Amino acid sequence: MQEQLKKLEEEFNQDCCSISSEEDIQELKVKYLGRKSLLSSLFSQIPNLSNEEKGLWGMNLNKFKLRIASIIEEKARKLKAKDSDFDLTFPSAKVDTGSVHVLSSVNQAICSIFEGLGFVTLEGKEIEDEWHNFTALNFPDDHPSRDSFDTFYLDIQQDKDKGKSLLRCHTSPSQIRIMQQYKPPMAVISPGRVYRPDEVDATHSFMFHQIEGFAVSQNISFADLKGVLLRFAQEFFSPDVNLRFRPHFFPFTEPSAEVDLSCIICGQKKEKEKKCSICKDKGWLEILGCGMIHPNVLSACGIDPKKYKGFAFGMGVERIAMLKYRINDIRLFYENDVRFLNQF
Ligand code: PHE
Fold first, then answer.
1. d(CA 233, CA 114)
2. Is a pLDDT exceeding 70 seen at residue 200?
């Protein structure tokens, strides 16, 4: 018995050295632990032994059996781990990663330019009321913008004193909320979505994004407004752009202006025979509205217009992004076609 077990052990050790596959493991199991294995024939010899030897060999064989079972287990585990080893030099499968949406990155870039000039970014509310969206901004009661053709009214009632609820049609009501909440001096930038019941086409959408900016202090002038906007345009578009301020009208600013950017495509240099399809050879592109905050607006927010003055401006993020990246259809921003989005 002793001899046989020794031989069996030697053979097992030898067989163990040549294991290289799952099949080898299976074979090893059958050969050493199976019903027809040498070990089981040794077990079957036990009944023929003397009583004393029975106990001893029963124990020896069981110990041996457990030992080889655990060695086989260990070999199998190692083999599996080896199979799933990474080859770090192997080229990986292509991973599709998302990217920041072009509107988000333009929005972010604009806000951070103004932040660099000392403005603080604060958001207003998308669900507004008539008072914040119109009345406090000095819109007369019969102003056509209040018409339901120009504003999305909502069936929910918030504060009765503030009129009907609506989806804000510009970011200017953020001026009101922020001026009511904070004391001047202040310089704030307020981005967000706005809604207008417009027919959707290449340049219109019922939802788009605006960035409102305003500053209030005892000592502020239209010159500050011009300086801030020129600095923004030169940083965002290119150092050689220029701005043109055209007189305009907004109920909430006086005086008011529309601002044109010198054409970033043709650089205002008309080449003979060549037409600029972007500025239509005018050399200027309208980019925003602005002005000095109307005294009635300051009063509505509890700020004394005799003591304080302010400027404000508002721009459409889609329009700015379309000019910067020469995108010719606003709908591309919302369709989420990765072939479009991947380009930014
Ligand atoms: N709210 C105006 C618009 O939507 C833009 C604007 C903002 C104009 C601030 C002047 C001052 O067209």
1. 11
2. yes
SS3 call for 7: helix
Q: Interhelix angle for 2-17 vs 51-83, to 10°?
A: 0
Contact 12, 43 (CB under 8 A): no
Instruction: Classify 218 as helix, strand or coil.
Output: coil
Using the mean position of ligand 1's atoms as its centre, give its distance from the Cα of residue 313 in Å: 6
Residue nearest to atom 9 of ligand 1 (CA): 313
Is 289 a pocket residue for ligand 1 (Cβ < 6 Å)?
Answer: yes
Note whether 136 and 172 are within 8 A (CB).
no
| Ligand 1: nearest atom to the Cα of 194 | 4
Tell me how far the alpha carbon of residue 320 lies from the centroid of ligand 1, in angstroms.
Answer: 15
Structure confidence by residue, pLDDT tens digits, 169-185: 999 999 999 999 999 99
Nearest alpha carbon to residue 116 among 261, 235, 289, 226: 235
Q: Can you give the pLDDT at residue 158?
A: 85
Compute the distance between CA of residue 303 and CA of residue 308 in angstroms, rounded to an integer: 7
Residue 268's DSSP bridge partners are none
Q: Residue whose CA is closest, atom 7 of ligand 1? A: 314
Contacting residues for 249 by C-beta, under 8 A, at least 6 apart: 256
